[in-house]
Structure formats: C-alpha cells, structure tokens
C-alpha cells in the first residue's frame, strides 16, 4: 500500500491520532502499517522475542518500553525473526541495537534511539493492553501507519 501519513491524517483528522515527533526510522522498510499488537515492558525484551516468534500476519508490534534509553529492546536477530514470521514492523518506545544491519532488512522499525547494551531476560511485561506514549494511545487490533 502506498500512503502518506499526512494524507491519511487529512482524510481522517477527526479520528486519527498522531504521535509527537521523536521517532527515528531504522528499518529497511520506511513505510509500514498493520493491526497493532502491544507489549508493555521495562528493559526486558523476552516478550518481544516471544511475540516475534509467532506468526505476525502483517501486524505491527508496538512496544512501550517506558522510553528507557539504558538498553535495547530489539536487535537484528529479533528483526530477522519478525520479518520471517510475517510481521510488518515494530515501533519501539525505547532503543534498538544493530541499526546498520536492521537498515538492510525489509522490516519497518521506528525507535527513539540506539544502544548496544542488551536488555535483561526475566519474562516480565504485559501483552495486548492499551499503551500510551508520545501523545497516542495504541489499542490492540487498531491500525497504525508509519512512514518517513
């Protein structure tokens, strides 16, 4: 689908939400969209891996990492897993790692920044709940559109 978020907003301004500026495109797919699957985690990417291992069916994984910049919640191995499982992309309210490798993959990734530090692996977090960050409430099953 060829779209522009500005045009989508103009056509649906009464019902559309727009995230505040601050996200950076890192993936090789700069324009992506799909139904939302949410995670709420804090410096633990165990649920990110679990989600991306499952069939994505064109969904976008929206991860509320609390805006933490102390570690990465997504790296090239997880992006490869998500791409191969049929996910359209991921929006990370936190950091990623392996940005150069991720930029060569056909997968949409937006995040706040990069950090080479890995997250912990405790399995903590919640899935498929409404999450709010950058002025938007992301509802599981609603659609998200992201572009340059």
Low-confidence parts lasting 5 or more residues at pLDDT below 50?
none
Return the structural class. Answer: alpha/beta
Question: Mean of residue pLDDT?
Answer: 96
Largest sheet: 8 strands, mixed
- Strand tally is 10
Continuous helix count: 4
Give the amount of beta strand, in percent.
Answer: 25-35%
Helicity range of the residues?
A: 10-25%
Question: What is the chain-wise order of helices and strands?
Answer: HEEHEEHEHEEEEE
Gyration radius from CA atoms, angstroms: 14 Å
The end-to-end distance, rounded to whole angstroms, is 14 Å
User: Can you tell me the overall shape?
Assistant: globular
Molecular structure report:
The protein has 4 helices and 10 strands; from the N terminus they run H-E-E-H-E-E-H-E-H-E-E-E-E-E. Strand 4 (72-74), helix 3 and strand 5 (89-96) form a beta-alpha-beta unit. The radius of gyration is 14 Å and the shape is globular. The protein has helices at 5-11, 46-53, 76-84, 99-103, and strands at residues 24-25, 32-40, 60-64, 72-74, 89-96, 108-114, 126-127, 131-133, 136-138, 143-146. Strands 1, 2, 3, 4, 5, 6, 7 and 10 form an 8-stranded mixed β-sheet that branches. A two-stranded antiparallel sheet has the order 8-9. Helix content is 20%, strand content 31%. The model has no long low-confidence stretch (mean pLDDT 96). The chain starts with a helix and ends with a strand. The chain has 148 residues and is of the alpha/beta class.
């Amino acid at each position: 689908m060829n779209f522009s978020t500005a045009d989508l907003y103009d056509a649906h301004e009464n019902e559309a939400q727009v995230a505040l500026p601050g996200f950076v495109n890192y993936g090789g797919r700069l324009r992506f969209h799909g139904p939302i699957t949410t995670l709420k985690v804090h410096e633990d990417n165990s649920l990110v891996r679990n989600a991306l291992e499952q069939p994505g069916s064109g969904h976008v994984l929206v991860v509320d990492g609390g805006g933490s910049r102390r570690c990465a919640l997504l790296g090239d191995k997880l992006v490869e897993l998500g791409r191969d499982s049929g996910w359209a992309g991921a929006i990370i309210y936190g950091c990623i790692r392996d940005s150069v490798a991720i930029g060569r993959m056909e997968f949409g990734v937006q995040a706040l920044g990069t950090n080479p530090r890995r997250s912990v692996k405790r399995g903590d977090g919640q899935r498929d709940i409404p999450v709010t960050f950058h002025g938007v409430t992301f509802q599981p099953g609603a659609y998200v559109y992201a572009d340059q």
